[in-house]
Inverse folding.
């Protein structure tokens, strides 16, 4: 019998509903030395808090935001930030190693190494140097990667690929040791990227959604391309990585979904079971989907208590959308010897697709208000009841109502509600 693989799940850049983890930035005219030092210090603290959260959730794969150091590759930022914050970077890097968290970075769409414009190429090299400097400052191993797209076609794909080869020589060895290439949804298929990767000795990240949109051979399934990409990964590069995302309905091709839909993910997971992979989710609800997918694929190490913790976070979102599903989930979780993860998350998916209902929304808001009604001042009570009435009449939104309740949650320090997704999911 073929042995099952180990598949690890990660997410990108932000930890939603985790206090004090959103990175800060500033506009260019305010980017003086003192402001930049203040922001970088805060962002490093935020990164450390994300790592603590990831450890608690058993998430061992994370993509660090390019915004960690504002204007990191721009002359606007003349700070020698890697030296000024060297010990802080090393401290976070020690925790990454201790927690077994593998990190990566993904320069954005304007980092184009194969551009025919030499100024654009120069900026791309500088941007890659910045990203590499972050990973070096953290003292991460070469398996912490920089993900890059090949770039544009410029009316001649063959010439554009040759230009990538030539400009690749401009990169220093530290960048080359970290660089990986990814297929995109418009220009370069997985076949194109494999051609470059094999020729230049660059590992290839296979992107599931991009291949669905920009497919080089519809007769080949993901398992085929994952195996083909595996040949580009050397031992020093660490575990093979892929990207997984789902198409958001009604949006342009390539738009990432709001959340990872449960049954679609389970089917995909079953199709890649025999590959050892690090799977980076690209999804708008970030860590929420990462936790969901981990709980879906690790029944041997999880139990009903893990689903109950998730239910505490989702329950008021479900209540405001679909009270009948709220009752279904409560019934589902009564059997303490079971682990109905697929049914649990499928019901949450179903509830979140329900349209807004004023009566249900008011009911959920009143449940939340119940935590404060004996603490709130008369002024707060009057304001809340006025907001409820305005919402019923259509002159206020449910988002405004939630913001008011979130402020009360923060003011009165209710950790149970602070961890709820009710304020995040709309």
């Amino acid at each position: 019998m073929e042995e099952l693989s180990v598949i690890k799940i990660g997410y990108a850049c932000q930890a939603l509903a985790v206090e004090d983890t959103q990175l800060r930035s500033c506009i260019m005219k305010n980017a003086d030395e003192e402001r930049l030092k203040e922001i970088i210090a805060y962002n490093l603290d935020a990164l450390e808090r994300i790592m603590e959260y990831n450890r608690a959730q058993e998430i061992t794969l994370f993509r660090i935001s390019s915004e960690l150091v504002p204007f990191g590759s721009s002359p606007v930022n003349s700070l020698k930030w890697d030296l000024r914050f060297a010990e802080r970077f090393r401290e976070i890097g020690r925790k990454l190693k201790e927690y077994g968290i593998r990190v990566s970075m993904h320069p954005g769409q304007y980092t184009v190494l194969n551009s025919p414009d030499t100024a654009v190429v120069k900026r791309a090299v500088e941007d890659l140097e910045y990203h590499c400097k972050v990973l070096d400052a953290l003292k991460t191993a070469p398996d912490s990667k920089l993900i890059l797209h090949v770039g544009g076609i410029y009316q001649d794909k063959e010439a554009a690929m040759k230009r990538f080869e030539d400009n690749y020589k401009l990169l220093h060895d530290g960048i080359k040791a970290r660089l990986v290439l990814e297929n995109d949804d418009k220009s370069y298929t997985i076949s194109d990227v494999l051609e470059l990767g094999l020729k230049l000795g660059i590992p290839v990240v296979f992107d599931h959604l991009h291949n669905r949109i920009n497919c080089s051979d519809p007769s080949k399934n993901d398992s085929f391309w994952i195996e083909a990409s595996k040949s580009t990964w050397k031992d020093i590069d660490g575990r093979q990585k892929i990207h997984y995302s789902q198409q958001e309905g009604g949006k342009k091709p390539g738009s990432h979904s709001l959340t990872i839909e449960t049954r679609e993910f389970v089917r995909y997971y079953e199709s890649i079971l025999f590959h050892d992979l690090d799977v980076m989710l690209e999804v708008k609800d970030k860590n929420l989907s990462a936790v969901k997918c981990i709980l879906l694929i690790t029944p041997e190490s999880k139990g009903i208590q893990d689903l109950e913790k998730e239910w505490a976070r989702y329950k008021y979102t479900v209540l405001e959308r679909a009270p009948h599903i709220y009752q279904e989930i409560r019934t589902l979780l009564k059997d303490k010897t079971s682990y109905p993860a697929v049914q649990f998350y499928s019901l949450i998916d179903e509830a979140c697709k329900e349209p807004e209902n004023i009566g249900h929304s008011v009911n959920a808001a009143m449940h939340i208000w119940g935590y404060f009604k004996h603490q709130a001042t008369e002024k707060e009570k009057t304001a809340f009841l006025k907001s409820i009435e305005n919402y019923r009449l259509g002159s206020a939104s449910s988002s405004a109502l939630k913001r008011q309740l979130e402020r009360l949650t923060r003011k009165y320090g209710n950790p149970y509600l602070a961890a709820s997704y009710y304020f995040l999911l709309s």
